[in-house]
Amino acid sequence: MMLKNDLFLRAARGEATERTPVWLMRQAGRILPEYRALRARLSGFKELVETPELAAEVTIQPIDALDVDAAIIFSDILVVPDAMGLPYEMVEARGPLFPEVIKSAADVDKLRIPEPEEGLGYVLEALRITKKALNGRVPLIGFAGAPFTILAYMVEGHGSKTFSKARAMLYREPALAHRLLEKITLTTIAYLQAQVTAGAQVVQVFDSWAGILPPAQYTEFSARYIARICEALAPLVPVTVFAKGAWWAVPEFAAMPCRTIGLDWNQDAAQVRAQAGDKTLQGNLDPCALYGTPEQVKTATEAMLRQFAGGPHIANLGHGVYPDTNPDNVRVFVETVKAWRG
Predict the structure, then answer these.
(1) Is residue 19 annotated as part of the catalytic site, yes or no?
(2) CATH of domain 7-339
(3) In DSSP terms, which residues pair with 283 in a beta bridge?
(4) What do you get for the CA distance between the two ends of the chain, in Å?
(5) Which of 10, 35, 82, 153 is flagged as catalytic?
(6) Domain map of the chain by residue range?
(7) For residue 134, what pLDDT band results from cuts at 50, 70 and 90?
(8) Across the chain, where does the E strand assignment appear?
(9) What residues does substrate bind to (predicted)?
């Protein structure tokens, strides 16, 4: 199927584009009234994620409402441990919660490496439905969490400022941590390959908790596993790595076969460009900039775009859009990027 708008896909391949493509992390969701209306009819977040027709509907909503250049499948990184045999709950106003956590070698042994269609078929079906419904309007992004970020939740049991239990495992039982990371990595590779088969044209690896590790541990317990995912997926589609807070890891990402490096809002675009060579860069407007006036949003967006001049760029935020953001300001961000010819 021919894409009517292939700007994002071309930029993700490192090709020249007539303007900078734009999309937002977490664009499918909480900022849109149409999402809130749909969510209010359901039992909760997991019902939405696990119902392919509804996940597809929510994936497409920002294409209609915000006119962004790419769709990202509506799902969650925690579907992977769920499929491996460690179920999670999504607690309103608190976030994810694992009733059981990984504490021992016996717990790791019990985890399975599922066949993607068996354990994660609902995500793959959502991708297939979305791809058909998009009908070539924009490219479709698939994603998964980086193995360390998944381990952090599986060991800690919930979100945390420190993830001290998960980090303690790296010091006290590094071999056990590597066994768990190995299982997560094999599951993730098969899952992302299946996403590509189901219709994903780019995949993004989210290392949400990368910044809590010191550099040497990041190399040992995270980057090496991300590299394996990139090596397995790069022959199929362009791969984006987004590691929040791990600014010092850019040279490691530059050596991987990922095509795009995502930047959080604390990173300097020129510095990353110097370290990353010909990689495409993605980001990195501060999500809080969208709380400003429309004129402030426009000014901040143009300042960001100037910083990324000189190489391939995909405009985005430096993290996911915050749920109380005014959708009109998001539209100002999108329209400013589209009008930019710097």
Answers:
(1) no
(2) 3.20.20.210
(3) 315
(4) 32
(5) 153
(6) 7-339
(7) very high
(8) 71-72, 89-91, 95-97, 140-145, 202-207, 239-243, 260-262, 280-285, 313-317
(9) 26-30, 76, 153, 208, 319
